[in-house]
## 1
Amino acid sequence: MIEQQATAGPLRQQRFRDIRIILRLMVRNPLSLAGLVIIVIFVLVAIAGPYLAPFPREAEGAPDLMHQLLPPSFQYLFGTDELGRDIFSRIIFGTRISLATSAAVVASAIALGMPLGAVAGYYGERLGAIIMRITDMFLAFPPLLLALAVAATLGGSMLNAVLALIVTWWPWYTRLAYSQALATRNLPYVEAARAIGVGDPVIVARHILPATLAPILIQATLDLGSAIIAVASLSFLGLGAQPPTPDWGLMINTGKTYFLQHWWYATFPGLAILTLVVGFNLLGDAIREAIDPKLSRRRLI
Amino acid sequence: MTSTLVDVKDLKVHFPIRSGTIPRVTGHVKAVDDVSLDINAGEVFGLVGESGSGKTTLARTILRLIEPTSGQILFDGVDLLKIGKGELKRTRKHMQVVFQNPFLSLNPRMTVRNLIAEPFKAHKKITEEEITQRASRLLKLVGLSEEHLWKYSIELSGGQAQRVCIARALALEPKFVILDEPTSSLDVSVQAQILNLLKELQKTLGLTYLLITHDLGVIEYIADRVAVMYLGKIAEVGTFEQVFGDPAHPYTEALLSAVPKVDPAPTDKARIILRGNIPSPANPPSGCRFHTRCHKYIGDICRDVEPNLTTLSATRKVACHLYKS
Amino acid sequence: MPTNPSEVLLSVEDLVVHFHTLDGVVYALNGVGFDIRKGEVLGLVGETGCGKTATALAVLRLLPENAEVISGHAVFEGRDLLTKSTHEIASIRGRKISMIFQDPASSLNPLFRIGTQLIDVLKEYYPNYHEAELIKIAQEKLSIAELPDPESVMRMFPHELSGGMQQRVIMAVALSSSPSLIIADEPTTALDVTIQAQLLALLKKLKEALGLSVLLITHNLGLVRELCDRVAIMYAGSIVEIADVQRIFQNPLHPYTRGLLSSVVSGRLRGQTLQHIPGMVPSLINPPSGCRFNPRCPYVIPVCKDKRPELTEVEPGHLVACYNIPKEAWWRT
């Protein structure tokens, strides 16, 4: 046993300062700053939606057959679609949908997967084995195919698309939580809790679950980007949002038919997806780097 | 009249070794092999040994953090291995533990107040108000102040963190506290403070300690009786004067002479340097486990026959063929 | 320093090192200075965080990226190690000055056999030798380190060896270039007492046989007593006392040294309350001004807070950095 001289020393990590440190580090790195800015912009757009869109009723679906398929102009920044609706306004409204659905997918998958993984990791033996084998079964399917199958069975709607994705995604978090729980359950402070007489369920809730949170949150930030693409894909395939919802994936689906003559229809929703996902990826990478204790501790200020 | 608080009888803790492509049990790590000892109420019982001696496993088994393979552990007359979960939980109030590294023993995400609250929440139904008050009193008892209640373990020094561990262990007013290398992770000057505290607490609260350490100086300073373990077995047991002043078992002799002394006395004997390494508890030597390194090896009997614990006096036992009862 | 200059192997002077961290600047080394003479074992003693490892790393230019050497000299064989190029340092590090760390397992690559790792190192020092010759030399080094059956050991992986044997392998590696100085950072702390005794005996033997100098970094005072010729006591980034080992135990002068020695736990003090130094080791991000021990020192006088005391010789071979050396032993009341 290495005789560790137990000191927290001057180089200690204070939890509350961590967030400020992370932000500081992120701001210094231009890429991560870009990611942060992108996300913030999209979130603001989502919140302020109805007030920003020049043609809010068209965004919701009201047609304007006088202005069908117009190219981008000063009035219609991204052009109009086959029903004459302003694509720019529809994209703004679509931001809400994308952010809300991806957040719902990720949050629910975590809510389902994390406790399962923590329980499997802590209890181990038979209960753990059963849970993990079921998890493995789900993981064996290519994610999008599984989502497609579930969504197709349930029928095409936004709700069903979200449900399908939750069913597909929870195992990833279970596995993350499981490995973290395995590492944590042998730590002295868990042993100490057992010696005190704390019951197992309380130990899982109080000691194991919080320890699994960190890696899961990092993964979640990256997953938000993937979730957006997944939701858009399902909508693109007709298994998600239905017309007239201004969902980006649905817009690309409809737009592809008009693509050759009217390039703007599918392009702008595509760019929206691209930008938002890149934003989440940059942010996720930055957070991961900032949280990595070896890297962050030593940066010269 | 001293009464026996903890009575360990014929305890065996064997861990199966699984190996091979189709995992089968290919052997056992005999971490604790037929150990019997008794700890009297109110005393400080020291347990020494090196790696593989089984002292840590023994401690955890007494706390029933590890399930033994066979044997009995009597706590205040009750066999801990035969009681149900409910009674075991109630018994846990009376036996607590302080581990080696305070920073690893305290959840870094919990405040000191919540860390000390944990035993209360597990056993008693008292209000949050009451918990905070009791925690505050416990902190004072171990030499910390109320302001420490709201700190996190990483904000504390090693000594302070260990004090918090001690406060937590005392929360439910236990009779018996196992101290597993309580000062080994601490700096020299802090060790002294913690030892003073432990000694004082023992006197004022009438505690019984099982003190496990490899630091012989600490044992010599504070222990009433001592047991020396080697490879899962007890080599020798006696009062501190007997074991340190006149060691009976050759291993104890070698152990004592191996420690580099800060103030050597002219009466010190020459250092005994043992040959070879400590064997693995998965594959202990035949007969007397110490025979491969023993400087007082007397012959085939050491290699072939395992010595039993022979009683030399009312307080003293040795497991060595050099002694006949 | 009034010692014959030709006897001095390594001379560290006024070493000041800062670490830049997210919590602020750590003023780790605050003017460290000491000499190591040829053939002597110098103990560098102090508690956690006092800077003993940082000192060793600074001398060998192994400090991490966020360290800044503000000033100081480490003169070895006539030249300052701190100003040499990385190329020149590489030829000294591992060859003329070797280092042994605390955890032998992390100094050995778990994926390669002992023989492979040892020969890898030997190839550097014996560049034109054949594989067969190198194997022989490797086995020789292993037997100097008193490893039983060197041939078998060569074929083993590190995890197949016990901690004591791993540390012997490390010693064999450290000795393979016939260095004049070995820096050993807590070499036996991770080992059992009986194994420690074996290694202690080996170190003594090697010191006699090879005329090695050793800088032994440790917090174990017993080890110091047994193995060292002279001792340097370190506190919060500076050396506070240097003396022959006998002298420092008989007559410790610096208040910190006295406190340290008085707090050693032993059976002799049975029944008594243990002495200890009040207070805590200071933060090195915001260290006390002047002498860093002043907040905890019972002999503090105003000048202690203004300026750090220099090491001055108070009796032959005995240096202390203190303005107010206590006249009597106040710790033992």
Note: Residues 159 and 193 of chain B are 8 Å apart (CA to CA).
## 2
Amino acid sequence: MAILGKERWDVWEMAYESILGLQEIFAEDPTERVHKALLEVYKQYCENLFDAIDKNKKIIWSNFAVPGTLLHGFSDEDIFWYQFEALAVIQSLVGLPGEVNARMVDSAEAAGMAPEVCSVDRIALGSVVEECIPWGDAAFYMTTPCDSQTCLVNCMTAHNSDMPTIVVDMPYRFRPEESVYMSRQFREVIDFLEQSLGIRYEWDRLKFASELYNEMMETILEWVDLRRTSPAPQGCETLSLMAAVVTVFSGARQGTHYAREILTDLKERIERGEQATEGNEIRAVWYGDPMWSDLNFYNWLERELNVTVPMDMFGYYAPVGLIDTGSETGMLEGIARNALRNFPMTRQLLGSMEDYIDDYVNLCRFYEADFGVFPGHLGCTHAWGAFGMLKRTSEKINVPLLSFEFDMLDPRVTPLDDIQTIFTQFVNEIVIPRKS
Amino acid sequence: MAELIDRFRKVLDRPCDDLVRTHKESGGKVCGYWCGYVPEELILAAGMLPIRIRGVGSEDSSSGDSWISSRLCTFTRWALSAALDGHYDFLDGLVGINSCDQVRRASQVWMDGSPMPFSHFVPVPRATREVNYEAFHEEIIDLKKHLEEFVGKSITDDALREAIAVTNEKRDLLNRIANLRKPGVSGHVDGSEMLTISVASTQIPTSDFLELGRQFLTEREESEAPESTVRAKLIVCGGEFDEPDYIEVLEGQGAQIVGEFVCFGARAYKEMVDTRGDPLENISRRYFYHVPCVRMGEKFHDRFEILKEMIREFDAEGLVFQRLKFCQLWGSENHNMLDFCRKEGIPMLSLEREYGVISTGQIKTRVQAFLEKIEEQRA
């Protein structure tokens, strides 16, 4: 299927076709706000990407932790910011992860990338090996949240040594001085990209983007709080997608629009007295990588086991302070603070284990979890490294913990049936008897 | 001669060598550290003996596995097991680090699970511009302050200079021993011996190491290599690697290992600390900017150039790239190395391994095939 009237790389055409198909399915249902909003932002993403290619805009390569708000100081008439993870995420959400993600993983491994590296980064490398992404004019990477992302930076910088590249270090600690350190690095990024791309950075644009970010974040914080409602009115299928949208659309209207839609949807469901599950609700905190290889798994959980996930690691945002748009420094430090403290995985896993454990304990308490889930994504070394502590903490706070091994993007690793069996056994044999 | 190398080998058998025990019994303190980004000079200047953490001591990794799972690399699991099983109880302190996610987690579990009188965590930036160096230097200043509080005295510039001098001397000695393998240099040392010696240098007091090492160098400078058929000269490269028995297997197939571009090898001793100017600043600069580890994401080409220079200096004909299973960082390096070695026409063998386990049969088969390939190309 053509995108903007032209034939494109097959993997993107497949994704685009899926998006349009799903839009048709959800079009007539007025209660499908969230799906519609999500599909619309991703449709726009695909179109913006190919519009940028057609118009020879400057492409900035980055990894997903790069705060998009910062890059909105450049006009989107001049640049397009391509995150390596975009293809994998879009394929997972609307496409054919079993086919496309698997193909990219295989390409990366055939090129020597170790299978222990997170599939997000193997897919990213695979997409470069297969040359099905736009080539960058410059690159801006951030060393977060994990070694796998460093692996991606290692490979990309090795193979594209002619591409002007700047790497920003994400610090281990989260004190106020770290925001200052980050903001200094952000200034270097701005100067670097201006020089490399020959495009002027505009602080007024950054101010506008920061205001949009603030509006988006205020909306999200309200939504995070309302998700505590019990029984849960809004399902959990799209919960983790908040991270995908915030990552790509920070500082853009699409991000603010999506946040408003998901909050409105939640409020409407509360008003209508809806419940995500039919029977007696069982609440789980999903503390780790989501099941992006098959989002229907969450619908299955609600339908078959009456288990809903009121909050997970990827949907959780904390009130860490909005961006001060009163000055350049205020904006840069605000963006830095939010990047450090309000980006999923960075917040919980980049620093010490206390951050990881504290959030887990708080989420279990705030969302009245009947059990916790440790989704053991195989490439997630820093989570696996904290698993022992998590288990012991879960025992201490008397919340049963379910753990299982899988891959968040490659469905071949653990068959869905096996995961469903694990959940069914755990819920029936441990959770339900405890609840009754 | 055999006695000296055996003495070095004995050092590797367990975490606390007799020389360390003697140091402790005479009132000395010992501080463990995980990685080559921790300045041993600072620990030394504080009056403590720096010992680099390894995975020996325990019979298995089960203690570590129960905390950091079997999905992490075997080195960290074995090292953590050794700590939790009490084999590192002789340490008075530990400097943890975020060299990689696995060491970061193991550091913290150790510090929380087996607290020591002194523990400190040094976060090292992963980008290498001046702004990042300044952040690293702040961390080193912080480490210095904490060490001073612990030992109850200031670490003076003179103490730092003295520590730099003796550590540089150690590095220089290691380089001279390693250089016995250069073309045109008389004397000999084989790869397993060299790795034994370089690992041992991180496990015993520097003064003892210098004494033994100088003796070894003197003896070996005047000796000739035992007769054997050398099929090809190779350099072993990769990440954590402190098991000389592995190299013995490689050399048993006819490979002559002329370099160890690994964490416990040349990357640890290749570069000196500058002795001019501010000693603390010099220490920080040397450690931050030394041969970059793969954890410094964008530094592959710097690393590769240094490796290529080593290949030229030692007249090597190929590389054995080894990495620990579950090591992500060196796993990504495997991809880069394969690609660039192919482009540069450098034969490369890629091997995966588990810490504490040497699959002799597998290694032999692959190394033999690799050596045959080099011989064919040579012909």
Note: The first strand of chain B starts at residue 29 and ends at 33.
